[in-house]
Amino acid sequence: MHFHEKPNTYVTNVELKVSDLQRSLTYYQDVIGFKVLHQESHKATLTADGRTALLTIVQPETVEEKQRMTTGLYHFALLLPTRRDLANIITHFHEKGVYLGASDHAVSEALYLNDPDHNGIEVYVDRPESEWTWYVDQVHMVTEPLNIQSILEEGNGNWSGLPEGTVMGHIHLSVSNLAETEQFYTNGLGYDIVSRYGTQALFISTGRYHHHIGLNTWHSENAPKLGENQVGLKTFSLRLDNEEQASSMKANLRAMGAPVIDIDGGFQTEDPSGNVVLLKF
């Protein structure tokens, strides 16, 4: 899990707008296995270990359904500590009757599902870093069928919620213009491109992770940004390493015309597709 420690710039928390807070709370606790860290009338912060905020869900006063074609969240991805944990959650999902997608990406083994508002969720486990294949600065990733039986053989049926050590592994965004967004995250925030998937998707990271952020235009090319009250992504947070890095990012972002707003513990910006990014120490 060293990819989700400083000095890497990794995702710490994802904030979602939902149409019914109580319905979403039930889902994220009973199905996904989160615990409630804090709760208010229209907001709840969720955790795996009882200490670290991973997901925040907010019900706007006026809720609107998401339009079919907008930018925003493609999925957020929860990284489990071990393959046994993945086996146990597969068994749990089966017992709950949850419909799943599943893929082997060579670097990872992943499950895909949607919350009640159709926000995309990935739950995955990384293969050992020693098994990843790099072609200089590009990591080999594929999308192939997942060998679920092989994973289940490692399970012990011991599921009592997301295990301690679960982190927000990455976020995958729907964007309107891939070239503009690439410039924002690479030149503005200092990410490296580690994989291109055709002409409509790319994956970026720091510290040679397979990806901390995914970007695609598969269903969002030239699409408008998500509306303020539409269900979907509200913000996501990235961890800053130090003040020098923060100052450099701010200068880069201002030079390209991106907004920079100081907030408690860091600053806020917005990518060219309207995705709000919080950068915090």
TrEMBL record:
* InterPro entries, per database record: Glyas_Bleomycin-R_OHBP_Dase (IPR029068), Glyas_Fos-R_dOase_dom (IPR004360), VOC_core (IPR037523)
Domain VOC intervals: 10-126, 167-281
Please report the name of this protein according to its UniProt entry: VOC family protein
